[in-house]
Amino acid sequence: MREVLNILNVKIDKLDMDGAAARIRSFLKEDGPSLVVTPNSEMIAMAAEDAELAEILNSAALATADGAGVVLASKIMGDKLPERVAGFDLINRLFSELENEAYNFYFLGSKPGIVDKAVENLKQSYPALNIVGYHHGYIDKKMQEEIIAEINEREVDLLLVGMGVPLQERFLAQNLSQLKLKVAITVGGSFDVLAGEAKRAPLWMQKASLEWFYRLLQEPSRFARMLALPKFIYLVLKKRFLKS
């Protein structure tokens, strides 16, 4: 039975990394498609003001806690989540586990040229991984129809979509029923990291819940977006203690 924690009306699965990976493997044995989302504090704060985004996130078969802020919120609510399950770490776990299995991957998103580099790098790290197609995320309606047809033609099992929030969620909400695949995962800016265009924080900063600070140092223009974290914590505290 699925166990979830409701944070600001967004359901988060009570799973650690092992459990999330196992859940996705179970989806691969079912008739799909299953939607997997990785909400962080910024996304949940956004969903608190965007009913459509909240509905999409809650329609997912799996929602992992992508961010220290989400785990902190669970502590505040007195129902601690097992651990942070970052989307980037989750997909790399899947690459490792599924490299030698007959599952087909398709990557959709990021700027032109970036997803190409991501695929090149992945083929070096996971040479046996079945990547059957990829395309950048700057698409119009006609191109979207062509990509959906290509995905279905190539018998894709796992589709990774990195278009940023909420575009990637809305894209899948609108098109998932037309896609003949097993699992669709929203991956945010993961293709940029896989391509070497962006760097993740050192492991010690990740463990110290300082990855947000590292990203701010890399991209000072993200400062306004970072304000979503204190806003998110405020909303959680308000919900927890004022019952509003």
TrEMBL record:
GO biological process: cell wall organization; teichoic acid biosynthetic process
Pfam families according to UniProt: Glyco_tran_WecG (PF03808)
Coiled coil: none
Key words of the record: Cell wall biogenesis/degradation, Glycosyltransferase, Teichoic acid biosynthesis, Transferase
CDD domains given in the database record: Glyco_transf_WecG_TagA (cd06533)
E.C. designation(s): 2.4.1.187
Catalytic reaction annotation: UDP-N-acetyl-alpha-D-mannosamine + N-acetyl-alpha-D-glucosaminyl-di-trans,octa-cis-undecaprenyl diphosphate = N-acetyl-beta-D-mannosaminyl-(1->4)-N-acetyl-alpha-D-glucosaminyl di-trans,octa-cis-undecaprenyl diphosphate + UDP + H(+)
InterPro entries: TagA_TarA (IPR034714), WecG_TagA_CpsF (IPR004629)
Pathway: Cell wall biogenesis; teichoic acid biosynthesis
GO molecular function: N-acetylglucosaminyldiphosphoundecaprenol N-acetyl-beta-D-mannosaminyltransferase activity
HAMAP family (alphabetical): TagA_TarA
Recorded family membership: Belongs to the glycosyltransferase 26 family. TagA/TarA subfamily.
Function: Catalyzes the conversion of GlcNAc-PP-undecaprenol into ManNAc-GlcNAc-PP-undecaprenol, the first committed lipid intermediate in the de novo synthesis of teichoic acid.
Protein name: N-acetylglucosaminyldiphosphoundecaprenol N-acetyl-beta-D-mannosaminyltransferase
